[in-house]
Amino acid sequence: MSESKDKEIKTQPPEEFTGLKQKAPKETSVGKDAIFSALGQMNKYMKKGEALKLSLKINQKGGFDCPGCAWPDPDDERSKLGEYCENGIKAIAEERSKKTIGADFFAKHSVQELSELSDFELGKKGRLLEPLVLEEGATHYKPIKWEDAFQLIADELNKLPSPDEAIFYTSGRTSNEAAYLYQLFVRAYGTNNMPDCSNMCHESSGVGLSETVGIGKGSVTLEDIHQAEVLLIMGQNPGTNHPRMLSALEKCKVNGGQIITVNPLPEAGLMHYTDPQSPKRMLTNGIELTDLFLPVRINGDVAFLKALMFEILQMDIAQDGGLIDHDFIDEYTEGYEQFITAIRNIDYMACLRQCGLEAKQVRAAAKIIAKNEKIIVCWAMGLTQHENGVDNIKEVVNLLLMKGAIGKPGAGTCPVRGHSNVQGDRTMGIWEEPKPEFLDKLDEIHGIKAPRAHGYSVVPAINAMKEGKAKFFFAMGGNFLSATPDTEFTAKALQNCDLTVHVSTKPNRSHLIHGKKALILPCLGRTDKDIQNGKEQFVSCENSMGVVQSSKGALNPPSKELLSEVRIVAELAKATLKNSSINWNEFANDYDNIRDAVEQTIPGFEDYNKRVRQPAGFYLPNGARERKFNTDTGKAKFSTIPLPKHEQAEDEYIMMTIRSHDQYNTTIYGLDDRYRGIYNERRVVMMNEADMKAAGIQHKEVVNLSSEYNGVMRYANKFLAIPYPIPRGNVATYFPEANPLVPIDSFAAKSKTPASKRVRIRIHRANG
Ligand SMILES: Nc1nc2c(c(=O)[nH]1)N[C@H]1C(S)=C(S)[C@@H](COP(=O)(O)OP(=O)(O)OC[C@H]3O[C@@H](n4cnc5c(=O)[nH]c(N)nc54)[C@H](O)[C@@H]3O)O[C@H]1N2
Ligand SMILES: Nc1nc2c(c(=O)[nH]1)N[C@H]1C(S)=C(S)[C@@H](COP(=O)(O)OP(=O)(O)OC[C@H]3O[C@@H](n4cnc5c(=O)[nH]c(N)nc54)[C@H](O)[C@@H]3O)O[C@H]1N2
Ligand SMILES: [Mo]
């Protein structure tokens, strides 16, 4: 037993270096290095037979949906070699690690001791095997029976003065079936406090798109990407985060399309690609992807888009029209006059200054876009995680509407989603602001009285716990402490709770920063066989392009003690809601029954059980795809967006927090960021070489970081400064190590998405 009683639990990740090696950033992606890296991870962390079995089933029809990203699978033919990618393999190697941890591990190590470990070190301990409880005042987690765990939760929930003092978080791996049942339980219990990872992710896209084109999802299909004449890829690093997107980009290029990349960093994955599944490409050294690279300053996107649209307007005037789609604008949109007047009158030089690009670069982009009609804009966190995140999306929509590039083949919006079922969870009703029609249906079908008042999203949920307005925290997956902004602040919020509960597959830092009491409930993962009532079940997920597909685990679970998320919800509901008229057993015994309820509740799921059994699943309806814009006026809307205010003191840098190649959000697969040439270290701050020189900072010098926002100081110490091709005044660090610096009160207007891509920081020489 450890002597750790007097030591404090560490709320911040450990500030220790692991041995940085830096090489020049790579200029090409995937190829044989990716295969070696994936095989390396499988050999190191998985059992041999299991690795082979899984790699043949990943993203295959009738197989399981990769727990990695939400990029869609081809509707027709799937590669024989397995429709997988390096990072998909890492995701399953992580989930199916041969290591496991049970009660003996937790008896040996106190919570305090474990709090000295990083998420990387914790994750590598292995799969969780049995339910665990941390009693009030205890120093160690110990085993608890499932029924006692459910009773403990039920007692806490029934003790609360109001259901609105409970918070129910969801990460985006939860299946449609589990998500539907979960939200039904939470609403039957009596609250809409359902924050989810989407709040920190694509919420800005959801809000921006709903208000302008009437649907919070993207409008394109995979085939559209293949057919596009121009792909504008903004604030996204697909080589790392959506590797299978690269083969779609390759198809687009082979079909004659052009790619414009807008990113502060020259991400290797977007520059050059060698398809590991094509021997010919491996021999011929692959294909150039990006035709025009625009190294925009962090959050310079609105300024860039304005300058771009100004240029297109000038070109249209110069050639007497034909470049702007007035037929489309007249028939389908509103707000054009006001919008185009504002574009005509922009301060062009101010736009150039803010985006950091030269006029000739903007003009080069305008030339490509103006003369083409099939245009798709793809984006991810580089656009959404800003205070003006929603405006970023609306400005993207302006460009597409101006060109009539939506609701026709090869054109439209493509927000590339994160978690593999984050989009499906929202469709199933995981939302703090549910629509009244949806709640009416729940009431009618299930005989409940769902609450109408909106609940907390992530940032308000943290504030509520911090202020003592919420006392119970339940997480269906995820790593709330490490994923949210302002780590210290969030830690205090969680520690204010009476009970914190995590349904998890692997240990993480959220298990260690706990309420008075805490529970860890281990569950089945995507790769595990799920048998209920003697019958093998499957679940379903919705990908980034609105296709719903089935997913069935392939391996025996690592322990008999693990329950499916569906079963956990059902048991929890039975324990908590004593007079419930809902037959929770029926749902958990056969997931077809859940799908039948979904079909009755949510439009687009007609014949759900039948269609989900079709090999490639089915598409959900999408108004924007058909030029049916479901806004309040039935028209797509142009927006008039102000240029963002960029406050920044002389000695401040603008920091973005990004993912390395070896991580899945807070799950850290390894310590390398191969494409960026950064090896064996995550506590780095990437700086422009000239900035380092000006500040007298040496390569690999130890620096401390601080951020000051609304008069509050925040700190994260011990990072190594390294030179990197990034615009001057901008720096980059990895998430989650830099999250202590992201202010809790810096978030996007309307979507409340934390502004983790634009944090004002100062860099202090540790020995200077
Ligand atoms: N392997 C792997 N796959 C993943 C994930 C993972 O962690 N690992 N995470 C999943 C999840 S949940 C998500 S949301 C996605 C995330 O996918 P991404 O959004 O690609 O992930 P980030 O690393 O946050 O990268 C943001 C990119 O935007 C750029 N950027 C930052 N600020 C700006 C800006 O102001 N303007 C512009 N134009 N660009 C900017 C950065 O340089 C970087 O290339 O990936 C999903 N897939
Ligand atoms: N600074 C900064 N912060 C960010 C971001 C950023 O770019 N910068 N990105 C944000 C984004 S886009 C997102 S989506 C969030 C992610 O936030 P989360 O979704 O909360 O975090 P993850 O790291 O994906 O969660 C990992 C944990 O999920 C559990 N898990 C894995 N698989 C399963 C499963 O099948 N079932 C269950 N029940 N549990 C499982 C494991 O225990 C694992 O430790 O982080 C956000 N935070
Ligand atoms: Mo995300």
From TrEMBL:
Residues 654-759 form the Molybdopterin dinucleotide-binding domain. Keywords: 4Fe-4S, Iron, Iron-sulfur, Metal-binding, Molybdenum, Oxidoreductase. GO terms for molecular function: 4 iron, 4 sulfur cluster binding; formate dehydrogenase (NAD+) activity; molybdenum ion binding; molybdopterin cofactor binding. It comes from the Bacteria. CDD domains: MopB_CT_ydeP (cd02787), MopB_ydeP (cd02767). Its cofactor is Mo-bis(molybdopterin guanine dinucleotide); [4Fe-4S] cluster. Residues 1-28 are annotated as: Disordered. The keyword Protein biosynthesis does not apply. GO terms for cellular component: membrane. Signal peptide: none annotated. Residues 127-502 form the Molybdopterin oxidoreductase domain. InterPro entries: Asp_de-COase-like_dom_sf, MopB_CT_YdeP, MoPterin_dinucl-bd_dom, Mopterin_OxRdtase, Mopterin_OxRdtse_a_bac, Prok_molybdopt-oxidoreductase, YdeP_MopB. One of its GO terms (biological process) is cellular respiration. Residues 1-10 have a biased composition (Basic and acidic residues). It holds the Pfam family Molydop_binding. Belongs to the prokaryotic molybdopterin-containing oxidoreductase family. This is Oxidoreductase alpha (Molybdopterin) subunit.
